[in-house]
Amino acid sequence: MKYEIRQMRIYSSLKSMMQALYASITQRQKLSLTHQEFVEYHREKHAPLFCSLPEVQQHVRRYVQCHTIQASLSGLPSITFDGVTELWFDDVAGLEAVFGSESYLQTIRPDEEKFLDLHGCEFVLSTESVVIDGEC
């Protein structure tokens, strides 16, 4: 019985994640930083600061940081971004509650200017459609 309840909770959680709003922010580091300095600041300073906001705690369902690796792949274009931040929300209202909040604008935006080239970043808002989840 406990196993069935757990399975139902996992299914319910996965189902809600599949219908979630997905924000992907491609990032370019400030030219004055090395890639390692950018990664360390993003992980160790910015992430805890962002997570400390009440709006983030209330509305962000998942937060993932991806940082590029130095690799040259034959047949593919060169890597132009230094990282990607992935954020999941229940809806647009949750996203607006975070990015439009006074605490975001007064605390997080100035912090982003310390390690990001804000004009070089791009923002994609979407829903997720899983094509492969395990076997193809």
Give the count of helical stretches.
5
The neighbouring-strand order within the major sheet is 2-3-1-4
Succession of helices and strands: HEHHEEHHE
User: What integer is the average pLDDT?
Assistant: 88
Low-confidence stretches: 5-17
Q: How many β strands by DSSP?
A: 4
**What is the radius of gyration computed over CA atoms, rounded to a whole number of angstroms?**
17 Å
Residues in β-strands, percent: 15-25%
The major pleated sheet works out as:
4 strands, antiparallel
The first-to-last residue Cα distance is 32 Å
Q: Label the overall shape.
A: globular
User: Which class best fits the helix and strand makeup?
Assistant: alpha+beta
Percent helix among the residues?
Answer: 40-55%
